[in-house]
Design goal:
Distance between the termini: 54 Å
Shape: globular
Number of domains: 3
Strand order of the largest sheet: 7-6-8-9-13-14-5-15
Bound molecules: flavin-adenine dinucleotide, iron/sulfur cluster
Number of strands: 15
Largest sheet: 8 strands, mixed
Number of helices: 18
Oligomer: single chain
Length: 461
């Protein structure tokens, strides 16, 4: 675990801190959450085995094999195990309008409560900061426990923001009941690992709902976007990262930021494009752990929801989910709801699901293999992954692109810290401009080459 933390591979999930009272979760100056180990003591074995980044803990494949054992389960190297794969959205209520995508995330969690299949849902929500909504002491978002569907519905939407589970896992251990927990893939893995160490968690963890994940952002992401909209970090109160903008494709969503400027409340809604950091391909403010991750579709979750980033759905600004179901009870629930018209579901093939996350999968298969090789060549310790270190799958040009993208993400943390300390966003812009320009030039040439290759193949039949 010390190697995980010192190497910068801690994703800040908080699993270890839930099981070892000597471990605490701290926010560092890069605005990420990181575990702090007890001084002069080694972390407990339970904590080590609960960390999704130690070499000793079970990987996603073995956890999935253990959990998903139905006779009709199918397995795919890219999307994991599945009973059913769909695209769709919630027809009933305001789930779709209030959700990031098709609203399935909040719907599944509240449906589990409504059907009395769980007593509580652990999900991510805005934290109350009534005394001083701009205070840095309390983060903007965090995990909370909700026991009624209304609270789950009220706290939909994706929070591209560091959150940690140590307190809610402790709550689960202290408070009897059946729980559903939502998390990005590594958090789902951490939950399964905790359940292997704690019989209580194993009994109480009834469902794990996964969220497809491209990568996690540091807290600077929210601040950088809002700052460009005229709200500086010290006045920032809240951010909605996924505002649906009518008349535009679903993928061209907007941002809403609220805060105080010159003593006056200010609220801004703006399209994301054009804001530095908003292009997910650039990977600005990305945690280093995310560069060493091989799970895109939460392979250990009972169900996973994401965005159906496929051309046939992008026109509908209201958003469409991609859904992979692995648990038989949840499969019955979603199929039953679709039959009754409560959900709209269309069958997707495993290939289409993978295509909806093509960029994420490329980055965490071929790209990861290359990053592992680079780490090995540098002699750095890095976590063991299901992908093997290799460069052969990437052309020299693609290797350059991956190196530049990695450098972009890592450079963004210190550049933003400098800008924040100086109270001047331009410092960030100036530091990042040459790196962004160089990356964009290389990337657009590669896109052009790929398009030319496609045309040539078509002409040759
Ligand atoms: C860091 C991050 C990266 C993502 N990357 C991708 C991607 O590359 N491709 C893709 O298709 N989709 C990605 N998503 C998922 C996408 O943004 C939507 O969350 C997903 O499509 C579900 O939308 P929905 O309308 O069904 O969910 P909603 O109905 O809006 O519900 C979302 C649920 O997720 C919970 N939640 C929000 N933020 C977090 C969080 N940080 N950790 C755990 N739970 C959370 C909320 O509490 C809520 O219950 C990402 C999400 C996150 C948080
Ligand atoms: S369990 Fe989570 S918080 Fe603890 S060291 Fe591992 S990644 Fe970090
Ligand atoms: S990219 Fe991987 S490591 Fe990073 S938050 Fe997502 S699931 Fe976790």
């Amino acid at each position: 675990m010390a190697r995980v933390i010192e190497g910068g591979y801690c994703v800040g999930c908080g699993a270890c801190a839930a099981l070892d009272p000597g471990i605490t979760m701290r926010r560092n100056d890069r605005q990420s959450l990181v575990a702090a180990l007890p001084e002069n003591a080694t972390p407990s074995r339970e904590a080590e085995l609960s960390c999704p980044f130690t070499d000793e803990s079970a990987d996603e494949e073995s956890l999935s094999q253990e959990r998903f054992t139905a006779a009709d389960i199918q397995r795919d190297k890219r999307i994991g195990a599945y009973l059913g794969t769909y695209a769709g959205w919630v027809e009933e209520g305001e789930f779709r309008a209030k959700g990031s995508s098709g609203g399935m995330g909040a719907w599944i969690l509240s449906e589990l409560l409504e059907r009395d299949l769980v007593d509580a849902v652990i999900h991510v929500a805005e934290l109350e900061r009534d005394d001083d909504p701009t205070s840095d002491e309390i983060p903007m978002f965090g995990f909370r426990v909700s026991t009624n569907a209304g609270d789950v519905k009220a706290h939909a939407k994706s929070r591209y923001y560091p959150v940690q589970m140590s307190d809610v896992i402790k709550h689960m251990i202290e408070t009897p009941g059946r729980y559903a927990v939502v998390g990005v893939p590594c958090f789902c893995t951490a939950l399964r690992l905790v359940a292997k160490q704690s019989e209580i968690v194993s009994e109480r963890l009834a469902f794990v709902v996964g969220i497809v994940c491209g990568h996690l952002k540091s807290g600077a992401f929210a601040e950088a976007l809002a700052w460009q909209c005229g709200i500086a970090p010290e006045g920032l109160q809240s951010v909605d990262f996924r505002v649906k903008l009518e008349g535009r494709p679903a993928s061209r969503y907007g941002l809403r930021a609220d805060g105080i400027v010159n003593g006056e409340p200010k609220s801004v809604t703006a399209p994301m494009e054009g804001l530095i950091g908003a292009n997910w391909g650039h990977g600005l403010f990305k945690l280093k752990a995310c560069e060493f991750c091989d799970d895109v579709l939460a392979e250990t979750a009972d169900i996973v929801v994401g965005d159906a980033w496929l051309p046939q759905y992008d026109d509908d600004y209201r958003g469409t989910n991609v859904v992979v179901v692995r648990d038989a009870t949840l499969h019955t629930i979603v199929k039953d709801a679709a039959r009754k018209g409560r959900l709209h579901l269309e069958d997707l093939s495993a290939d289409e699901v993978a295509a909806s996350q093509a960029g994420g999968l490329r980055h965490r298969r071929d790209g990861l293999a290359y990053r592992l090789l680079l780490a090995d060549e540098r002699g750095d310790w890095r976590p063991r992954k299901r992908v093997l270190a290799n460069a052969a799958q990437l052309t020299k040009k693609l290797q350059r692109i991956h190196r530049k993208r990695y450098a972009l993400g890592q450079a963004s943390h210190d550049a933003f810290l400098k800008a924040k300390q100086a109270g001047n966003f331009v410092i960030f812009e100036q530091e990042m401009a040459p790196l962004l320009k160089s990356y964009d030039r290389e990337h657009s040439r590669s896109l052009l080459r790929r398009a030319a290759g496609r045309v040539k193949r078509m002409l040759l039949g």
